[in-house]
Each structure stands twice: as C-alpha cells, then as structure tokens.
Specification:
By secondary structure, this protein is α/β, with parallel strands linked by helices. The chain has ten helices and nine strands. The chain has a domain of 187 residues. The chain starts with a helix and ends in a 27-residue tail after the last helix.
Length: 288
C-alpha cells in the first residue's frame, strides 16, 4: 500500500481526481451500507438527487488526492494552486493575539485546510490539529509521519492530545479540529444536526471558552478539473454561548456547520456515519 501511495503522489491532480470519481462510484455501488447511509443523510438535509450524485464522486476524489497531499516533501509548497477567500478574517483574528480555534467540517479537501494555513500563517502562528489515529497499523504509521509539517503539529484524540491543544492556545497559537466528528461516549452531548439528533463534541466550544481564543470556520473547496483548491475562512455563526451550557454550545456549532455545508453540499461527506452511537471512551480518555 505504501508503494501504491508513493506512485499516486507523483500523479497530476487531474488524474487523481479522475481516478477518484471511479473509486467513489465503485464504493457506492459495491457497499450497500455506505450507499444507504449516504442517501439517507443527504435526503435528511434536503439535498437533491443531482447534488447527491456529485457527492459520490467528490468523496472518491478526497481519497485519491491524499497521497499527493500527505507525501509532499516537508517544507515544499503546494504543487497545485491554492486560493483564499476571507483571508482578512484570519488576519483580524491573529492580530488579537489570543489564540485561534479553526473548525473544519468533513467537507471538501479538509486535509488541505491545515496545510494551507501552515504554509500561509505558520511562521507567524503555528497550528496544531487534532486527529483520530487510523485503525489500520500501516495507515496509522503513515499518518504519524506525514501529517506533521513545518509549523503544523499533530495531537492524537486522547486526553494527552487535548492537553496539547490547550497548551498551544495558551501560547497564543492556533488549533484545528473537525467539530462534526462523533466523539467517544462522555465527550459530547446529543444535539440536532439537519433535524436529527447527533452525538456532538463539546471540545470545540470548551477550548474557546477555557482559553478566550478566537474562533473561525475554515474549509477547502476542491476546484473542478484538477485546477487546485480554494480555502474559505468564515466567522462562526451563530456565536458560541457563554460557558457552562454544553447543549446550547453543541447546537450552535451544529447550526454553523449546517450553514457552511449547504454552501457546497456536493463536497460534504454524506457517507460519514454522523448519527452513530458513540463508542465507549478508552482508558486514556479519547476526546474527539
């Protein structure tokens, strides 16, 4: 698998995305549970059949572009064009010097978001991203080596990883996480997401509330025909409520994520198991 990933990393983006369309549809047609989950989640959000079909291809593109993103040599800029919209919002947040929490849904090329931030702003304010280690040993080893880059650190979704995020924010740095990821039992609350109750992490709001950090939404749009990416920076709307009300905070985050997702629903991962029952927390207190 590593050899295949290295070969794919040298392919042009347009070819990887073409392969991704095939992979996305093959997965959709061959996996009945995935197909049913994708259709159910998309229809729950009011997504049309045409957009849902586009999302099948976009999910495949996400998988096939990963080798190119992960195996790019550390310190080398993106080989594909990366544009920004909302750059001034990030500039304003950083200027306040209070740390910054970036929330990125499972949408578009979310792997690009942290790398693009690190490339643009990392020398000024480094970023630490929270990630859940893969279950497959070979993929877990790959993740541990390729996600960390200059000005971009990684923190595993454990109690130690959460502490790492808190320390980064208290130093006035940036952290990034996926707020629509289902946390372990005890690390979230049930809150509406597109009209259905979903177990939602409380970590995102607590990081902001405990450190006084700024907050923004960051997501990356995959441009057509391998033309690169566009990183979008947006304010979190609605704003987070005061500390102490986890249910209201989770609902605010979900509403914000819904609004962002509906800007480009074809690039959301509707096949993600968003409404699953959370797994038990591990002995080290997994938190994301």
């Amino acid at each position: 698998m590593i050899l295949l990933a290295r070969w794919l990393s040298r392919c042009p983006l347009w070819l990887l995305h073409g392969l991704g369309v095939l992979l996305g549809w093959a997965t959709y047609l061959l996996s009945r549970p995935y197909r049913e989950r994708l259709c159910t989640n998309a229809r729950l959000a009011g997504v049309s059949d045409g957009v849902r079909r586009q999302s099948v291809a976009e999910a495949g593109k996400l998988a096939t572009e990963l080798p190119r993103l992960w195996l790019r040599p550390a310190g080398r800029d993106f080989e594909d064009p990366v544009h920004w919209q909302g750059l001034e919002l990030i500039e304003q947040r950083l200027a306040r010097g209070r740390g910054l929490v970036l929330l990125t849904p499972h949408m578009g090329s979310f792997e690009v978001s942290a790398q693009a931030y690190a490339q643009r702003f990392g020398a000024r304010q480094p970023i630490t991203i929270l990630y859940r280690p893969a279950r497959q040993a070979w993929l877990r080893r790959l993740e541990e080596t390729v996600r960390a880059r200059p000005a971009l650190a990684t923190a595993p979704a454990t109690l130690a990883g959460v502490r790492q995020l808190l320390r980064a924010l208290r130093r006035g740095e940036t952290v990034g996480l996926l707020p629509d990821q289902v946390p372990p039992a005890g690390q979230g609350v049930w809150a509406p997401f597109f009209g259905r109750s979903a177990y939602t992490m409380t970590l995102a709001a607590r990081l902001v509330q405990q450190t006084g950090a700024e907050v923004a939404v960051l997501w990356t749009e995959r441009l057509p025909r391998g033309a690169g990416y566009c990183v979008h920076a947006l304010p979190l709307e609605p704003a987070l409520p005061a500390a102490g009300d986890d249910a209201a905070a989770a609902q605010a985050v979900n509403l914000a994520m819904q609004a962002v997702i509906l800007r480009c629903p074809a690039q959301y991962l509707w096949g993600y198991h968003r409404y699953k029952t959370p797994r038990p927390a591990g002995p080290v207190g997994a938190a994301a």
